[in-house]
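Q: You know discrete backbone vocabularies at least as well as I do. I have my own habits and do not want them to colour yours. No explanation is needed for now; the record alone will do.
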Amino acid sequence: MIIKRKCIITAQLLDRTLLFKVVKDKDNNVSIDLSYNKPGRGAYISKDIDVINMAKKKDALSRALRHKIDQSIYDELINLLKGE
């Protein structure tokens, strides 16, 4: 079964494996969920460097998670995408 989620930037419905999931837990800790199973408020963003840069410019994850997040999360997403 294919599970689809919507990217917060492109608004495209995509298979969740084509998206990164960023989660804010009940203690307001923000992390990247590579297992797609962590509880908490989640936001999905396409695995595309241009989309991630646009999200960084707009600080879209802060809006989606309703919590100010550190800009290093975006850098971490880019590093994951590059395979570092």
Summary: Residues 12 and 39 are 23 Å apart (CA to CA).
